[in-house]
Amino acid sequence: ETLAACGTAPLCIIGTHPQAVLDLAHEKMHTFPYHAVPIHWRRLYEDASCYSAITILQSKPDVFANVVRVLDYALIISGGPARRSLIESTLQRLYSIKPKPAEPPTPRFLPCHPPDTFETTHEIRRATHTLDVAEFQDHLDASLAPIIIPGAIDHWPAMTRWSDNKYLLDSTLDGRRMVPIEIGSSYTDDGWSQKIIPFAEFVEEYLNPTSPSDVGYLAQHDLFTQIPTLRGDILVPDYCYATPPPQADRKVAERISGESHEFEAPLMNAWLGPKGTKTPLHTDPYHNVLCQVVGFKYVRLYAPDQTPYLYPREAEESGVSMENTSSIDLFYLRPDFEGQTERAAQAREMYTQYPLCHNATYQEAILGPGESLYIPLGWWHYLESLTPSFSVSFWW
């Protein structure tokens, strides 16, 4: 019944000309904002992908990577509204019949040497031990403030596996699984773009090189639904089942009430990239536990009451609201880990352009492997990878 809304023509040819139907569905989907794409066009894209995979299998003997590509595109682009279980079971079957793997990658392990420490008078509070849920709830009730918790994810298999490029490639059909990546240090950069590529290409072109030509970031992607093997390496922190008190700031509460959605379970996202990837200063309408698995990240946080000093962006020409993102590029204001003398001049320029940010109070820290950072709903946060980094965020 849902597919009938697409009209009879594409349904009549989907079995014989699936690529033409795929192209039609793709065109129709891109006439709407992503969140408003009618489900019948997503369904058509999904079903045409399945027919396309069958056609490839029937027509060519050496088609392994092509089949993976078509099915992953169906999951990533359509979201799998009806055939997800079929597509996932097909992909899972491919793991047992995949061709002989290539030689182990070079380097075998991600280079994640600890960065130099830095002195700050604005340190994010660190718990002295791993908090249990009751202790975390007490923290929320007392202050609803950020806190770094050590050791909470030490038992995750990911802690010993995810720095190994070979393991990551094995888990993605020797790197054939397709993943969406962002090109550019952050989504506020000029020239920022997105593309979908094989995981092996992401590792070879962006993750492993010490000086890649571009910065590639696998950011805010539900990798764990797409790749069940990696989902088995982590657990949802019990902290996500605590109950934060209501937001006290009325303006923040009103703004967030229009942006947030109820989740049946905490929303998990992967953040994997090389040194230099940045998440611009922004806020989210959810509570967040950010778990650092591999590498080190610099983090800076501002409370919601600092918003007047942070110059929120206005809507883009496309009409997309950017008011949850600051105009200030904190790359020039954070500590100088590299010893770049020109940064002082760039920082002065930033303060001249945004003079009120001098008045903003903040907290900062370097987040290392095994540490979990609680970011309260509505808090502004900036993150930057100081080494290759693999993090998992849990929104609730």
TrEMBL record:
Its cofactor is Fe(2+). SUPFAM superfamilies: Clavaminate synthase-like (SSF51197). It holds the Pfam family Cupin_8. GO terms for molecular function: dioxygenase activity; metal ion binding. It is found in: Nucleus. GO terms for cellular component: nucleus. Residues 216-396 form the JmjC domain. Keywords: Dioxygenase, Iron, Metal-binding, Nucleus, Oxidoreductase. Its main location: nucleus. InterPro entries: ARM_KDM8_N (IPR056520), Cupin_8 (IPR041667), JmjC_dom (IPR003347). This is Clavaminate synthase-like protein.
